[in-house]
């Protein structure tokens, strides 16, 4: 095909135009993006990026949870009575063995009635009868026991399981005030001073059974308990020529319901108390302490426990008797007691 001169010129012009357009595009591409006056949006930057990807967040969460779970196995054993549970069989097993060998009990016997008990009372304001152990509510009718009387009578009970003390002053204080008392004297003290016992009986006081050896009866067999009581009966008869009154006091106030019934079956009423003192040890304020102990807990039917071996008791006795009588009470023997209805 033959090209005319005009067509050649036109073609050249078109080529020049194309080259110029291409050059303009390259220059436009080289213009800086942050050139003033440009309105192009800035590209995303790292500072505007969102927090670390979600997988990062669960990581600490899992670590926290793990930390929370670690102490739990350590705390669980603490409240569990593992040690106590291990002790229970230790305590129970010997008790059952002792029940069979010591008391001669059968497998049918209730181990609950061998549980060691210790007498106590809960003091109330002056003039009010104290509260007594909840066990008393479980005593059956064939468990004969006294712990408080009724009316304007006070039952002074004097225990002599320890030292005899100043017997002359004791006897004189009672006689001078025409007051009667109830004595629980251990067998070895009866042997030690039989004349003292005979004097008490001649003066109209009551002397009752307190065992021969003053031993915790929870530690004795049934046979040993019977022997303690029966030997005391024989000794009392030898010393006084009289049969002993049917009242008994457990050494240290320690007993169990099995022994309580055993003693009852032997014809005795076990005598507890509604007022007592820490008089087996020296009194801080001397004779003032036993006086205040008794007068601040004075109530109807009061069975007072006093230990003969306390010098403070003997010193305060004359004053105590006078104050109790002035308060309108009479000193009586246990043979006169009228216990409240159960």
The CATH homologous superfamily of the largest domain is termed Glycoside hydrolase/deacetylase
The CATH class of the largest domain is identified as Alpha Beta
Shape: globular
CATH architectural group of the largest domain:
Alpha-Beta Barrel
CATH topology of the largest domain: TIM Barrel
Helix content: 40-55%
Structure classification: alpha/beta
Provide the β-strand percentage band.
5-15%
SSE map:
Elements: H1 5-29, H2 58-69, H3 71-75, H4 82-101, E1 117-118, E2 145-146, E3 153-160, H5 167-176, E4 182-185, H6 187-192, H7 194-202, E5 206-209, H8 222-240, E6 247-248, E7 254-255, H9 257-265, E8 269-271, H10 288-295, E9 303-307, H11 311-326, E10 330-331
Parallel strand pairs: 2-8, 3-4, 3-9, 3-10, 4-5, 6-8
Antiparallel strand pairs: 1-7
Your description of this structure?
- By secondary structure, this protein is of the alpha/beta class.
- The protein has two domains: 86-113, no CATH class; 118-336, Glycoside hydrolase/deacetylase (TIM Barrel, Alpha-Beta Barrel), CATH 3.20.20.
- Helix content is 41%, strand content 10%.
- It has eleven helices and ten strands.
- It has helices at 5-29, 58-69, 71-75, 82-101, 167-176, 187-192, 194-202, 222-240, 257-265, 288-295, 311-326, and strands spanning 117-118, 145-146, 153-160, 182-185, 206-209, 247-248, 254-255, 269-271, 303-307, 330-331.
- Strands 3, 4, 5, 9 and 10 form a five-stranded parallel sheet that branches. Strands 2-8-6 form a three-stranded parallel sheet.
- Helix 5 (167-176) runs parallel beside helix 11 (311-326) and helix 10 (288-295) packs parallel to helix 11 (311-326).
